[in-house]
Structures are given as structure tokens and as C-alpha cells.
Amino acid sequence: MQNMFIGKGNLAGSPELKHLPGRNGDFTVASMRVMFGRYGQNEEGQVEQVGGFWREVEIYGPKAEACAKLLRKGARVLVIGEEREYTGRDDDGREVQVLKVVAEDVTLQLSRVESITFAAPRARQAESEPAEA
User: pTM score, two decimals?
Assistant: First the structure.
């Protein structure tokens, strides 16, 4: 890879899945917008977020379908791929440069485990035990 990209970020929205025609049949692409944070040290030597940047991320094939099923807005992901620059036009017709990441791999990060709700094991166990007299 010429412009290797590795970054952790949060999804701005759920991935959009598209089926596009190709030479060897249809292929699948998932597009998502990700906010990647920049971190630095403050005066006390603690690490804090000092900025960030947005990137369009695309992934192809079976991984695209998995991303569409598993990822939702706000999910923390690790993206590994290649950064590519494209020239396009905005809504007003002006020429703009766009940076996209063509992902080789997108991994869901479970750094926010506190937001996941688990069923209490004791509640299930209590239901299966006979009542004492």
C-alpha cells in the first residue's frame, strides 16, 4: 500500500450498502463517514483529544455486508486501509479534492463496554430453582 491508513474513530451514521454492477457480476460496497480524533498531551502530561478529522471510508465484498449488519451510528471502529485522493465537484459545481479510505479491514472496538446491557445471571437462575417452603 502506498498511503497506508490506520486509525480509530466513531461512525457518524450507519453504513450505506450498495450493490454495483461489475465485469464479473455485482459487487457490494459499504460507505461510511468516520470521525478520527487527534490526541496530544496537556500541561499536566495527560493525554487528551486536541482535534480530529473526518474521512469517507469504503469497504468491498463480504466485509461490506458484515459492516452493514453489525455497525451503527456512534460505533467505535479500527480502520486499516489505503488513503486515496479523488477530484470531484461539490453542489455548487466547484472542483474539490476528497480524501477517502479504501478499507482492507474494519474492526468493531469494544472500548465502551459499559454501554452494553447484560441480563443478570441470578435472575435466570432464580427462575429455574424450586421455591423453598
Answer: 0.70
